[in-house]
Structure to design on (741 residues):
C-alpha cells in the first residue's frame, strides 16, 4: 500500500487547496489515456470523466454530441456505483439509459471507475460505440489496467510524491547487501512507516507504530496495551470485535473499513488489512491501518454528484426515480395522489443550431431556475435529457389541480428569456400522469406521462395533455409493437411492396420505390407510419433498414436479369444516416446482388440533410461518389430552405404529396411546384411528384415540366407478383408498340 492518507496533523494540502490539482496539469494525460483506451478496446469513442472538488472534467476522443454528454455522465455515475465497472452491450436494451429519438445514438458502453488511493473514485474511464457490441471479456480488464495507471498518475498529482519518496527511501536506503534486513532495520521500517501498523492480542494493542497513534491522535506509547474497543465508533464496534474474535475469516474480506474515534473525539474512517498469526503460542492479529476519511468523503460527494445534472444542478433521472419510489410508497400507505409531469421544450434544437450550444446551455439554466422558482418546495424537478424535465408533484389534492399546474408551467416556459443580450423564446409540451389513476408504479407513470407529452407535441406543442385511459392504452400499444418488432424480423413478418415511378415524358415505368409493410400475426398489414418511428426509437431501424436494402437490391437484380430495366428507391431514416457503417452496408448489399450503384437511389428527408452533421454529410458524399442516387423525400415539408441543396450531393427532389393534392384548385401550390421545378432544373436535379391520384394532377405536373411521378393514379404499392405482372405487361405493350410502329 503506497498510498497513505492525510491526517489533520500533517501539513499536506487540504481538499480546497487541492482543487484543480488533478485537472490543471493533466490535460496531456487525459489525451493519452483516452487514446490508449480507444485503441486497446477497438472503440470509436473513449471518454474520461473526472469529478474533483466542484470541478467536472470531461474529455472524449471521438465524436460525441452535447446531448450525449449528459447521458454519459449518468452512465459514469452508474459506473462509480458499481465500483468495478459495467458494460452495456446495448444501451437501448436498458430503459434507464436508452436514447431518446433525438440523441445521436450511443449504443455500447463499457466503463470502469478510476480509484485513487488519495481521493477514492474520482472519475471514470469508458469506451463507447454507436452500435451495440458483444462485450468481450477483456474490455473491462483492459480499461481497469488503464484506469489503474491513470489513478497512479492522479495520485501523484494529488500530492503523493512525498509518500512515494518516503517509501522509496525506506525500500532502497537501508537495504543490507544480501537483500535481507536486520531486525533493527525491520523495526525502523515499521516505526517510520507511513501506514498505521499494529499487533492485537486479547482485544488489546500489543504493538502500535507511531503512525497509528498519530492517526488516532495519541502519543506513540499511549496505545501499547490499550483496549481496542473504546477506539471504535460505537455503531461499528460489534463488527470490529467479531473480527478480533476470529469470526472475520467468515466473510473473507481482506480489508474492512470502519469508523474510529480519535482522542479529541473526532471520527475518522479507517481501512484495515489484517492477518491472523501466532504470537507466544496464542492467537494474534497483525494489521495495517489507513486513514481513508477523505476518500470516504470524496466518495460520498461523488455519489451525491452522480445524482445531479451538472448543467442545471437539478436532480437527474436516478435521483428523480428514487424520490418517486419514496413518494409512491407514502402515497400508497396514506391513500394520497401524486402526479408525474413530463415537460419537453419545443424547438430547443433550433436554438442550439442557430445560436450555438453555449447559448442553448444558458437558456436551459435560466429555464431550470424558473421552473424551480415556479413550483412548490416539495415538488421535485429533474432534468433527464437535453431539453427534457420531469416534475414530481406529491400529495395532490384533486387531479383537477393538474390542468392549472400544467397551464402555469406553459406560462413559465413561454415567456422570453434574456440570454447573451438576446431575447429567446421557446415553448414546452407537457404531459401529466397521476397516481393512482394513470399508473400503479413508477414505470407506468413515467411511460404514461411521456405518452401524454408526445400527444401534446403532436398537437403542435405549447400545450399540455393529461393522461387518459385511451392514451394509456396507446402507450401500452407502443410498447407491445416495439417488443413485437424485435421478433418480427426473425419471423419474416416484414415484406416489401413496390410502387412504380413513371416518367412524365414517356409514360414508362422508370423506377420502383420499396415500401415496407409488417404482416402482423394479429393485426394484419401495418403501415410503416405506425412502426418506423418506434423502430427509430429502439434502434431496430438499423437491422430493419439493412434488411430492406438487402431484399430490395436482390429483387431488383432479379428483375434486371429478366430484362425489366429499372431503378430502385429505398427509404432511409435519419438514424441510419448517422451510422458510420452505413456506406459499407450499402456497398455490401450492392456487391451481394451484383448491382451497379447507379441502379440504387437513396431517399432521405430534408431534415436529415439539414442536420448537417459531419457524419451525415460524409455518408452522403461517399454514397454519391460510389454512384448511388440521392433523393430528398417529402420535399417542401421541412425547412424548405433550398440553399442547403447546393452543399449536398443530391440528384433528385420528391415533391411532397401535400402540394400535389390541391394542384388543380390551389394557385399557391401550383406556384410552389413550378418554382421547385425551375429551381431543381437550374441545379440539374430531377423532380418527382408524389401522391398523384388524378388525371388533372398528372397533366398539370406534365405541363410544369416535372420529370417523374408516383401515385395511386398509376399504381398503388404492390407485392412482388403484382409488380412483376405490371412490368411484364408494360414491356409487352412497348415492344408491341415498337413493332407496330
Ligand atoms: P414516403 O417515402 O414518402 O412514401 C410514399 C408514401 O405515400 C407511401 O406510404 C405510399 O404508399 C404513399 N402513396 C403513394 N402514392 C400515393 C397516392 O397517390 N395517394 C396517397 N394518399 N398515398 C400515396 P407508405 O407505404 O405508408 O409509407 C409511408 C412512409 O413510411 C414512407 O413515406 C417512408 O417515409 C416510410 N417508409 C416506408 N418504407 C420504409 C423503409 O423501408 N424504411 C424507412 N426508413 N422508411 C420507410
Ligand atoms: Mg420515400
Ligand atoms: Mg414521400
Amino acid at each position: 500500500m503506497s498510498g497513505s492518507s492525510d491526517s489533520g496533523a500533517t501539513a499536506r494540502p487540504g481538499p480546497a487547496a487541492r482543487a484543480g490539482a488533478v485537472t490543471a496539469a493533466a490535460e496531456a494525460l487525459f489525451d493519452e489515456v483516452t487514446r490508449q483506451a480507444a485503441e486497446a478496446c477497438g472503440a470509436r469513442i473513449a471518454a474520461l470523466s473526472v469529478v474533483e472538488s466542484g470541478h467536472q472534467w470531461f474529455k472524449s476522443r471521438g465524436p460525441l454530441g452535447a446531448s450525449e454528454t449528459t447521458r454519459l455522465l449518468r452512465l459514469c455515475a452508474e459506473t462509480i456505483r458499481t465500483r468495478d465497472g459495467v458494460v452495456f452491450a446495448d444501451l437501448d436494451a436498458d430503459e434507464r439509459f436508452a436514447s431518446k429519438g433525438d440523441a445521436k445514438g450511443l449504443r455500447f458502453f463499457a466503463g470502469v471507475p478510476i480509484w485513487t488511493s488519495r481521493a477514492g473514485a474520482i472519475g471514470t474511464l469508458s469506451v463507447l460505440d454507436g452500435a451495440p457490441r458483444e462485450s468481450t471479456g477483456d474490455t473491462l480488464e483492459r480499461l481497469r489496467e488503464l484506469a489503474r495507471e491513470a489513478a497512479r498518475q492522479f495520485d501523484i498529482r494529488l500530492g503523493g510524491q512525498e509518500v512515494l519518496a518516503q517509501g522509496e527511501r525506506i525500500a532502497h536506503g537501508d537495504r543490507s547487501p544480501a537483500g535481507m534486513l536486520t531486525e533493527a532495520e525491520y523495526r525502523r521500517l515499521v516505526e517510520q512507516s507511513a501506514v498505521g501498523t499494529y499487533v492485537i492480542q486479547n482485544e488489546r494493542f500489543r504493538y502500535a507504530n507511531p503512525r497509528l497513534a498519530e492517526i488516532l491522535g495519541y502519543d506513540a506509547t499511549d496505545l501499547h496495551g490499550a483496549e481496542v474497543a473504546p477506539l471504535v465508533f460505537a455503531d461499528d464496534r460489534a463488527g470490529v470485535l467479531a473480527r478480533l474474535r476470529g469470526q472475520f475469516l467468515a466473510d473473507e474480506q481482506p480489508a474492512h473499513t470502519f469508523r474510529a474515534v480519535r482522542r479529541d473525539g473526532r471520527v475518522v474512517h479507517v481501512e484495515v488489512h489484517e492477518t491472523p498469526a501466532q504470537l507466544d503460542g496464542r492467537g494474534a492479529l497483525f494489521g495495517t491501518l489507513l486513514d481513508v476519511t477523505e476518500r470516504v468523503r470524496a466518495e460520498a460527494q461523488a455519489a451525491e454528484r452522480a445524482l445531479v445534472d451538472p448543467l442545471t444542478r437539478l436532480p437527474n433521472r436516478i435521483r428523480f426515480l428514487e424520490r418517486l419510489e419514496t413518494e409512491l410508497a407514502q402515497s400508497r400507505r396514506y391513500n394520497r395522489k401524486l402526479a408525474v409531469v413530463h415537460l419537453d421544450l419545443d424547438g430547443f434544437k433550433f436554438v442550439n443550431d442557430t445560436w450555438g450550444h453555449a447559448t442553448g446551455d444558458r437558456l436551459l439554466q435560466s429555464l431550470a431556475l424558473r421552473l424551480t422558482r415556479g413550483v412548490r418546495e416539495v415538488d421535485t424537478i429533474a432534468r433527464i435529457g437535453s431539453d427534457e424535465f420531469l416534475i414530481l408533484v406529491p400529495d395532490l389534492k384533486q387531479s383537477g389541480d393538474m390542468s392549472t399546474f400544467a397551464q402555469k408551467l406553459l406560462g413559465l416556459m413561454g415567456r422570453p428569456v434574456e440570454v447573451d443580450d438576446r431575447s429567446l423564446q421557446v415553448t414546452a409540451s407537457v404531459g401529466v400522469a397521476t397516481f393512482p389513476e394513470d399508473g400503479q408504479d413508477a414505470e407506468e407513470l413515467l411511460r404514461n406521462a411521456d405518452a401524454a407529452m408526445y400527444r401534446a407535441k403532436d398537437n403542435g406543442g405549447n400545450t399540455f395533455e393529461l393522461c387518459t385511459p385511451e392514451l394509456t392504452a396507446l402507450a401500452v400499444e407502443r410498447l407491445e409493437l416495439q417488443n413485437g418488432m424485435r421478433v418480427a424480423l426473425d419471423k419474416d413478418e416484414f415484406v416489401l411492396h413496390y410502387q412504380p415511378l413513371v416518367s412524365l415524358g414517356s409514360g414508362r415505368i422508370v423506377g420502383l420505390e420499396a415500401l415496407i409493410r409488417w404482416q402482423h400475426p394479429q393485426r394484419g398489414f401495418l403501415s410503416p407510419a405506425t412502426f418506423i418511428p418506434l423502430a427509430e426509437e429502439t434502434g431496430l431501424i438499423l437491422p430493419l433498414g439493412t434488411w430492406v436494402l438487402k431484399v430490395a437490391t436482390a429483387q431488383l437484380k432479379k428483375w434486371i436479369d429478366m430484362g425489366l430495366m429499372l431503378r430502385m428507391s429505398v427509404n432511409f431514416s435519419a438514424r441510419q444516416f448517422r451510422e458510420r457503417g452505413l456506406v459499407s452496408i450499402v456497398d455490401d448489399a450492392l456487391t451481394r446482388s451484383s448491382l451497379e450503384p447507379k441502379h440504387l437511389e437513396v431517399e432521405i428527408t430534408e431534415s436529415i440533410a439539414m442536420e448537417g452533421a459531419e457524419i451525415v454529410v460524409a455518408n452522403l458524399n461517399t454514397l454519391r461518389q460510389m454512384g448511388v442516387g440521392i433523393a430528398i423525400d417529402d420535399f417542401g415539408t421541412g425547412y424548405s430552405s433550398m440553399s442547403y441543396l447546393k452543399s449536398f450531393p443530391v440528384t433528385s427532389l420528391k415533391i411532397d404529396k401535400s402540394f400535389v393534392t390541391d394542384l388543380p384548385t390551389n394557385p399557391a401550390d401550383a406556384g410552389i411546384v413550378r418554382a421547385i421545378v425551375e429551381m431543381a432544373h437550374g441545379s440539374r436535379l430531377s423532380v418527382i411528384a408524389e401522391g398523384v391520384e388524378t388525371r388533372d394532377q398528372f397533366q398539370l405536373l406534365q405541363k410544369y415540366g416535372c420529370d417523374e411521378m408516383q401515385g395511386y393514379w398509376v399504381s398503388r404499392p404492390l407485392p412482388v407478383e403484382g409488380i412483376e405482372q405490371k412490368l411484364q405487361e408494360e414491356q409487352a405493350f412497348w415492344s408491341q408498340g415498337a413493332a407496330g410502329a
In short: The chain has a mean pLDDT of 84.
